[in-house]
Specification:
By secondary structure, the chain is an alpha/beta fold. 27% of the residues lie in helices and 22% in strands. Helix 2 (28-43) packs parallel to helix 4 (67-75).
């Protein structure tokens, strides 16, 4: 399923600009405290307590911090998969074995990402996950997630659907990013829950 980001809903672009502006004003102290609180809330999820494999991601810049969460999952014996961006914006996957297993990769003029340094497991590896932790910029009362517009996670969700895989889909956000309604398109899929530093909200 290919999504041309240039044909993206203009309403989504306005939302993205505003949310990124607010995120970029967060202080280092707020980012650190939010990451600790986010990990604590997420680790209380029954889905994560029972998961054997979790597909996640490494936060960058002012995104809600994920490293503390990834390290605790690993310490619990959970297999953690991290994405590696492919040239066509699809995602391959590799295992997370600690912070020293990450490499910083810059894709063109975009923000540098932290990706797994080890063997690639293929784009279908995500279909074996019990939980998929998704990045995002906002989520609404229907569970519709606003992403960054690259389409990578739209492909992940479409791949899960084709494989008849049904992991718990959880987006990690700041409290102010849980809103009444975001612009949505026909290919958008709802998530099951959002975790913020102050709590968990479930949908559907």
């Amino acid at each position: 399923m290919k999504h041309n980001t240039r044909a993206d809903d203009p309403g989504k672009r306005v939302w993205r600009r505003e949310i990124l502006r607010v995120r970029n004003e967060l202080t280092a102290d707020v980012l650190r405290e939010s990451a600790t609180a986010l990990a604590r809330q997420a680790l209380g999820l029954p889905e994560l307590a029972h998961a054997r494999t979790v597909a996640a991601y490494v936060s960058v810049g002012s995104e809600p911090g994920t490293l503390a969460l990834l390290d605790t999952l690993r310490a619990r014996g959970v297999r953690v998969l991290l994405p590696a961006l492919l040239p066509d914006n699809d995602l391959d996957w590799g295992a997370y074995t600690g912070e020293d297993s990450l490499v910083r990769v810059r894709h063109g003029g975009r923000m540098a990402l932290f990706e797994p340094a080890g063997d690639r497991l293929g784009p279908d590896a995500v279909t074996g996950a019990d939980v998929v932790l998704l990045p995002g910029l906002a989520v609404d009362a229907r569970g519709m997630r606003l992403g960054r517009g690259g389409g990578s996670y739209d492909r992940v969700l479409a791949r899960l659907e084709r494989a008849d895989a049904h992991p718990a889909l959880v987006v990690l956000l700041y409290d102010s990013e849980v809103v009444e309604r975001v612009p949505a398109e026909p290919h958008d899929r709802p998530v099951h829950a959002v975790v913020t530093p102050s709590g968990v909200r479930r949908f559907g």
